[in-house]
Amino acid sequence: MEHEQLAIKEITPLSDKDFFYIVDRHKTEFNYPIHIHEEYELNFVLNATGVRRVVGDSMEVIGEYDLVLITGKNLEHTWEQYECRSKNIREITIQFSPELLFPGLVDKKQFSSIQKMIEKAKRGLCFPMAAIMKVYGTLEKMASEEHGFYSVVNFLTLLHELSLFADESRALCSSSFSAIAVQAESRRVQRVQKYINDHFREEIRLEQLAGIAHMAPNAFSRFFKLRTGKSLFDYVIDIRIGHASRLLVDTKMAITEICYESGFNNLSNFNRLFRKKKNCTPKEFRESYRKTKMIV
């Protein structure tokens, strides 16, 4: 399998002595290519309608406001100009080390909501407008103040206030693309999820999965959707599409080969379901991803 590096490794300005790094940019365009870094990142974009946000295998055109937290180690991301015509874009970026929220801190019950948010943001977390309005003032204050002790207090306050919206926020990247295990609390569902992750290339039948959970098929189908928010069919398809997206990005494999390698039984079905999930064909997805590539 032939691999190629599509994302550049960003060397962030964050030093060992910094609690966090913040930059407030006023710009006329986005021109930084798709990139990766180990640091956590909170990115706020204002007045950039038509910009396309890429986080893992998620590609979305944003509106006037956009606020995303990314905590996935080396998760590919960028904001690209696409159809944006604005010449008055504002971008506030905060980067901080994963070591900042050390176990002795986040394990305390007062930080439980932040810990939950950080975990969910491994796939990229897009916050709703209510969350943006809640923290907009704090972001502006942090962007203009000296980075002393009280800036740290404001930063922790910002994380806490955002964490209160974690349940209403949307994970962007698929779990199979980001190689993150997303598991339900139910042990029955966990066993089924593990089976699907291990066997998604094969034919998967409802009766098989129900047997793993020791339930009748119809009862288990309802139980699974209640616990995960997805039907079994959609869950399996999302795992397969996420795996296919990763192969489209990381390899030069033919699309037909990727189709069968990802568990689909024919190319037309693969193309139809991929378009339904991603609003583009596999070929268009690969080409769009490579347009953000920089040779280094």
What does this structure look like?
With 296 residues, the chain is an alpha+beta fold. It folds into two domains: 8-173, Jelly Rolls; 180-291, Arc Repressor Mutant, subunit A (Orthogonal Bundle), CATH 1.10.10. 44% of the residues lie in helices and 16% in strands. It has twelve helices and eleven strands. The protein is globular and about 60 Å long. Mean pLDDT is 88; it is low at 1-5.
Q: Could you say how many structural domains there are in total?
A: 2
CATH superfamily membership of the largest domain, which one? Jelly Rolls
Q: Using DSSP, what is the number of strands?
A: 11
Please report the distance between the alpha carbons of the first and last residues. 22 Å
Annotated CATH topology of the largest domain: Jelly Rolls
What is the helix tally? 12
- What is the overall silhouette? globular
Provide mean pLDDT, rounded: 88
Helix fraction by DSSP (H/I, runs of at least 4): 40-55%
CATH architecture annotation of the largest domain: Sandwich
Q: Classify the oligomer.
A: single chain
User: How much strand content do the residues show?
Assistant: 15-25%
Question: Sheet with the most strands?
Answer: 6 strands, antiparallel
Widest β-sheet, arrangement of strands:
2-9-4-7-10-11
State the name of the first-level CATH class of the largest domain: Mainly Beta
Low-confidence parts, pLDDT < 50 over ≥5 residues?
A: 1-5
Radius of gyration, CA atoms, in whole angstroms: 20 Å
Report the structural category: alpha+beta
- Summarize the helix and strand pattern as letters: EEEEEEEEEHHEHHEHHHHHHHH
